Amino acid sequence: MNKYKREVLHKSMNRNRNKRAQEALSRARGGLALSNYPTIISGFIEKGIPEEQILPRVNVLTYDAWKALGRHVRKGEHGVKVLTWLQMEGKQEVPQYDENEMLVENKDKPKSYRRPWSTTVFHVSQTEPYTNDAVQL
């Protein structure tokens, strides 16, 4: 692979990473569910962080959300695992019949559904801002 192709590929990969990080931040800040709050609060209390300093969606975010904010999780830090739900889009085959109830064709109908997703969240105290000499991937 020549140098130009490598540079183009590298830029494309960085754009995809940045887009994914921005989407993660948007989901983390814009979600309405409160079901993980007890898990998050108890998990960080066990790690020695006072309860009043634990603010989910404010200073407790996923790895990619912290990345979008220009911070990285320090090496060796362990977060709290939570279960969340992702909205998925798919297609459902819907049979089409004529007036004689004969099958004419199957059409794809858009279908949305939710699926569980496990992720890890980190407290701001477990992160550091990127520095100019640090390489952000």
Q: What is the typical, i.e. mean, pLDDT?
A: 81
Rounded Rg: 22 Å
Q: Compute the separation of the termini in Å.
A: 21 Å
Largest pleated sheet: 3 strands, antiparallel
By DSSP, the count of extended strands is 5
Strand neighbour order, sheet with most strands: 1-4-3
What is shown here, in short?
This protein has 137 residues and is an alpha+beta fold. It has helices at residues 3-30, 37-46, 63-68, and strands at residues 60-62, 71-73, 80-97, 103-123, 127-129. The chain starts with a helix and ends in an 8-residue tail after the last strand.
Describe this protein with a few key phrases:
3 helices, 137 residues, alpha+beta, flat, three-stranded antiparallel beta sheet, 35% strand
Question: What would you note in describing this structure?
Answer:
The chain is an alpha+beta fold and 137 residues long. The chain has a domain at 7-85 and 121-129. 32% of the residues lie in helices and 35% in strands. The protein is built from 3 helices and 5 strands, in the order ααβαββββ. The chain has helices at 3-30, 37-46, 63-68, and strands at residues 60-62, 71-73, 80-97, 103-123, 127-129. The strands form 2 sheets. A 3-stranded antiparallel β-sheet has the order 1-4-3. Strands 2-5 form a two-stranded antiparallel ribbon. β3 (80-97) and β4 form a beta hairpin. The protein is flat, with a radius of gyration of 22 Å. The two termini are 21 Å apart. The model has no long low-confidence stretch (mean pLDDT 81).
